[in-house]
Amino acid sequence: MATLQPSERVKALEERLGTTFTRPELALTALTHKSWINEHRGEGFQDNERLEFLGDAVLNLAVGHRLMERFPQMKEGELTPLRARIVNEEGLSRIARRLGLGELLQLGRGEELSGGREKSSLLANALEAVFAAMYLGSGLEPVMALVDRHFSEALEGVAQALGRQDYKTKLQEAAQERLKLTPRYQIVSETGPDHEKIFEVEVVLGPDVYARATGRSKKDAEQTAAHAALEWLDRGEKPGQGVAPVPAPGLKDDTPA
Q1: From 3.30.160.20, 3.40.50.10490, 1.10.10.10, 1.10.3720.10, which CATH number describes the 167-247 domain?
Q2: Catalytic residues
């Protein structure tokens, strides 16, 4: 990508977010890494570390607000881990990559050469800084609109996870009662880059593989595999050879064959 002027970086960011910054200078600061500042001292720019600090609190507030609305019966101790599943380095960097945030950053030469535009920690920090820039310029309401637009998949994923029953427990109870066996879970494969790994897991009862499933975490894959195995048990059947992996909710077209 050709070198962008500061105003072009902010305009591109606005287009990708679907919003406008009332204080574009803050948006540019959010895109400026300390490595760039080290090479441009005395030019009046600031790095994004202070905005990152504020953005962490802003995102926790906004996402926490939406979680409280979705789950009005939940207590603080239940809501806190849900928020942590969304506002973390992995989740934030995934959203930053979807927005193409890396190519908009102002990086120093060393950081550029070391692949800084793809570093999860750097991308997550920059996204936090972007949300702080929006908050300082326009307040919480447009921040909430951005959360609704760009965190909807993450929020829905949490809701789906909560909606699923604990199939591992149910399978264990059913297998012990009907077959006198305890389910065993084995990782078949791990594919994809570190920031978006896909796990394939199989569940075994005695000598038989009852189900395989894929997921973005071992836990999700195991739950989905347990669900599929439980369906075989409920029908009083055994799966045949060559069990095809079942994708966890949220994994469809990108599920490995």
Answers
A1: 3.30.160.20
A2: 56, 128
